[in-house]
């Protein structure tokens, strides 16, 4: 079969790590395992430079008709200091919202070979394997009103609105429980029901979905502040962690940092299943655009290549091809190949390009 | 001078650690350094049991007339599962709001003797000394609307509102910059201006206050998700960290956990300076009510006793008495006395009472 992939390299190190994906795709094609048609377009700062806005309508249309989307990273100092609706990040937010990508899956895995790169003691993170399920199209990111008004005395008042409905919470809860069944059968749900009404509804709906459909899965409720603490104290207590958009933003960054392998972590943002069973989906590294090392052939392409593997698995059911890529990553690391971010003191680091080629060869 | 202190032991281990404060107050009185009149009242779950609500009006009135308030901890499984406005936590939130305690100061200090208790590698936390300045009476905690409505189809919609005004941000920024001047002269301000309008206003106002009054202080802006990451990766990069109510809740818990000394960390919640120069203030440990060990003489009273020291320093200008208490804590630890939470494997732990007595004696 041939699939249509939209590549959105974006800003900073985005184009370099995306080149790694193209290297791997070429290798997959050669071996005859799978073949893809790719299109490339702009998003974020690079789209602002070209089109004057971070997501052109034509790009959105392409994204809607593509079978899946791979995104590099957006943002950089060049485009800050302006109203946030015309910043690079706004392009990403609009993609998520307009494509209905409500479920953000962020695995936080500690690669054994890299456990020493973690800030945490080795025994606390060795073998760590958490799946964060973050709600991605609701909450304070998109609720209205969302505005700054000028008061009569010239001072200002800013408002953001966190909104969640039963339906929004139900569908993300299903994603979390379904994933838990394929993993260790445990879900932790994080909110602040002691302070927020959306937290009260969140807890209530997750509890209901659990009682009605997933009594075989173990469910634990945890306050978001305590959850952040527990992630640092004893991260391996968690398996699947489901939470809202804003808490998910912070907690998934903490979890990613714990692994010591930030440059290695992929993510998937999934929409609702469509008629053909296919979910609209976007795959991107957890790391950002790292403008300080952009263009220097220093970035680690593994998170981006791992995002391609997730894409093959979740969007196209190509589990074997995904396994192949993931094994190639593991083998390449086992052979001692390291980019600068994961090279232990003294070890020789390779560049972005060389790493991608090593993985493609493997 | 004689001051009037209101003691609110609260729930769980609250009463035990508050007993430690009384032990230390008695020792201070004996030595003639300072003398206090204390009153004791209920808050949280214990107030629900006695008065049917987590903060009786009479208790609030007492809090308003007291020179300062010491609080133990509130909450516990006994009082969960009900609407949150009549839960133990609601008593604490009402105290903060009605007393105007807008500035929550949370030091995160790693005691050298306890660096090994941290989940982080020793070199990352040794010497850690961060002061988190959390806005405490605004944001999503108190903004309206804050409600759950039932939709025509029977499903629900929950709304919370994050509101910040120029004035609210200005006054917390002043607290942070003033503190930084007495410390290492650096402030980091955390928000999500790439997603939230309140983050846009936050950044704008903090920038203005800095430019107008504190150009001698170094100011850095950081996104809250990245801040959480950086706290784990390299916590010592931060000195004073100022942020809003909700991010402060999560980030201060992360910072506290990093130190490995959660049972040791005090906090101060300060109001605006009144006519006499006195600020209305409440002091409490960062840790919670730990219902699992309540009544077992296992809790560490140091955070509570440290809160008394903060009280003497900030509310009464009794810096020397505060130093004395803090030195007594350090000496007691140096002598090897440990409660169970900070005892390293094999070492004999003492109880709450014995620890408080050792500090009082010192
Ligand atoms: C870039 C930004 C808008 C985004 C977010 O806050 O969701 C990022 O932090 C993320 O987690 O993907
Ligand atoms: C008990 C709870 C309402 C409170 C909060 O969320 O502020 C607590 O977590 C804290 O940080 O003091």
UniProtKB/TrEMBL annotation, chains A, B:
Pfam families: Iso_dh. It is found in: Cytoplasm. One of its GO terms (cellular component) is cytosol. GO terms for biological process: L-leucine biosynthetic process. Residues 4-359 form the Isopropylmalate dehydrogenase-like domain. The record marks 141, 192 as: Important for catalysis. NAD(+) binds at residues 76-89, 288-300. Mg(2+) binds at residues 225, 249, 253. Its cofactor is Mg(2+); Mn(2+). Substrate binds at residues 96, 106, 134, 225. One of its GO terms (molecular function) is 3-isopropylmalate dehydrogenase activity. It catalyses: (2R,3S)-3-isopropylmalate + NAD(+) = 4-methyl-2-oxopentanoate + CO2 + NADH. It is an enzyme of class 1 (oxidoreductase). Its main location: cytoplasm. Keywords: Amino-acid biosynthesis, Branched-chain amino acid biosynthesis, Cytoplasm, Leucine biosynthesis, Magnesium, Manganese, Metal-binding, NAD, Oxidoreductase. Pathway: Amino-acid biosynthesis; L-leucine biosynthesis; L-leucine from 3-methyl-2-oxobutanoate: step 3/4. PROSITE patterns: IDH_IMDH. Binds 1 Mg(2+) or Mn(2+) ion per subunit. The keyword Oxidoreductase applies. Homodimer. Catalyzes the oxidation of 3-carboxy-2-hydroxy-4-methylpentanoate (3-isopropylmalate) to 3-carboxy-4-methyl-2-oxopentanoate. The product decarboxylates to 4-methyl-2 oxopentanoate. Belongs to the isocitrate and isopropylmalate dehydrogenases family. LeuB type 1 subfamily. This is 3-isopropylmalate dehydrogenase.
């Amino acid at each position: 079969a041939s699939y249509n992939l939209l590549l959105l390299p974006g800003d900073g190190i985005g184009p370099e790590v995306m080149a790694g994906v193209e290297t791997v795709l070429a290798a997959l094609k050669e071996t005859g395992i799978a073949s893809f048609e790719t299109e490339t377009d702009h998003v974020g700062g690079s789209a602002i430079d070209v089109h004057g806005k971070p997501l052109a309508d034509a790009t959105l249309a392409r994204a809607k008709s593509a079978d899946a989307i791979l995104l590099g990273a957006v943002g950089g100092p060049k485009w800050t200091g302006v109203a946030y609706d015309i910043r690079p990040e706004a392009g990403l937010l609009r993609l998520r919202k307009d494509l209905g990508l409500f479920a953000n899956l962020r695995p936080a895995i500690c690669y054994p070979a890299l456990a020493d790169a973690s800030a945490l003691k080795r025994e606390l993170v060795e073998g760590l394997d958490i799946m964060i399920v973050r709600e991605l199209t609701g909450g304070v990111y998109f609720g209205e009103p969302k505005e700054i008004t000028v008061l009569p005395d010239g001072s200002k008042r800013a408002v953001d609105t966190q909104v969640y409905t039963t339906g929004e919470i139900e569908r993300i809860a299903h994603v979390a429980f379904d994933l838990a069944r394929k993993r260790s059968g445990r879900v932790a749900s994080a909110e602040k029901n002691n302070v927020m009404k959306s937290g009260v509804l969140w807890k209530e709906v997750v509890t209901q979905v659990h009682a009605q459909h997933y009594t075989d899965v173990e469910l634990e409720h945890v306050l978001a502040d305590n959850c952040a603490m527990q992630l640092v104290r004893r991260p391996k207590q968690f398996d699947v962690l489901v939470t809202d958009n804003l808490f998910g933003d912070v907690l998934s960054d903490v979890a990613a940092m714990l692994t010591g392998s930030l440059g290695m972590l992929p993510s998937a943002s999934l929409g609702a299943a469509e008629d053909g069973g296919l979910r609209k989906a976007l795959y991107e590294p957890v790391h950002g655009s790292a403008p300080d090392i952009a263009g220097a052939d220093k970035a680690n392409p593994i998170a981006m290549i791992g995002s391609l593997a997730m894409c093959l698995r979740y969007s196209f059911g190509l589990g074997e091809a995904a396994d192949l890529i993931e094994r190639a990553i593991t083998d390449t690391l086992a052979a001692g190949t390291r980019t600068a971010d994961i090279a232990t003191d003294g070890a020789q680091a390779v560049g972005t390009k060389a790493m991608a080629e090593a993985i493609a060869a493997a």
